[in-house]
């Protein structure tokens, strides 16, 4: 029986700006050929103002799906029918897929299989023994006073203050909330002109670090606040972030160095 001719190719695409140096088309179409799929992958430059029309066009032309690259990974969400778990977790979409029922669902394969260690909700408890967990609970209870003092000193700079059980060498880190974008993603979006939602970090401190022990024993609330902000800024720098007020950090650090030299 002769093979039925079918000249209709299934369409997929990449939406972004700029895209002229994006090599994805060559790789994806090679994969299509390898698997015997008569599909095409189009590299399409889409300006931010044209994104809604581009998604509508993909719907009306029966695309099977499209990849989203900068600057559309967040903006595309409002034009889709829903998000898969990966995209919901990361708050961004790099792949939109047409489902059998016609709905378009956003997914994210950028970080699939990995959990950002900077996230404040990262749970390593499954690796700990019951004895370890009890010890951690005791430490957290013992440091409740320090947590409250830090919250008062750092104020609106943080979303929360917590005792960390995952730090070894560092006195503190700035963690991100479950629904917040990671620092690298924020920097990429800001560099591309995307509006990034505001968020505040979670200040997690290492209760066994010598600097934290000295901070806990500090009697002067003014000096406690100064030292707390120094640790906060150092944690931001260690994470690769920029300081909102570099001059204040230098002033506090210089003041501390003068005090130590006396």
Short description:
The chain is α/β, with parallel strands linked by helices. It has 9 helices and 9 strands. The chain has helices at residues 24-34, 51-60, 85-90, 130-142, 144-154, 183-191, 210-216, 221-238, 246-261, and strands at residues 10-16, 39-45, 65-68, 82-83, 95-98, 104-107, 160-163, 172-175, 202-205.
Structure explained in plain terms:
With 262 residues, the chain is α/β, with parallel strands linked by helices. It has helices spanning 24-34, 51-60, 85-90, 130-142, 144-154, 183-191, 210-216, 221-238, 246-261, and strands spanning 10-16, 39-45, 65-68, 82-83, 95-98, 104-107, 160-163, 172-175, 202-205. A six-stranded mixed sheet has the order 2-1-3-5-6-4, with helices on both faces. A three-stranded mixed sheet has the order 7-9-8, covered by helices on one side. Strand 5 (95-98) and strand 6 (104-107) form a beta hairpin. Helix 5 (144-154) crosses helix 8 and helix 8 crosses helix 9 (246-261).
The fourth-level CATH homologous superfamily of the largest domain is Heat shock protein 90, C-terminal domain
- CATH architecture verdict of the largest domain: Up-down Bundle
The helix count comes to 9
Instruction: Specify Rg, calculated over alpha carbons.
Output: 25 Å
Structural class: alpha/beta
Assign an overall shape: elongated
The main β sheet shows up as:
6 strands, mixed
Unreliably modeled segments: 112-117
Overall residue-averaged pLDDT value? 85
Strand content: 15-25%
N/C terminus separation: 96 Å
Spatial order of strands in the largest sheet: 2-1-3-5-6-4
N to C succession of SSEs: EHEHEEHEEHHEEHEHHH
**Count of strand segments:** 9
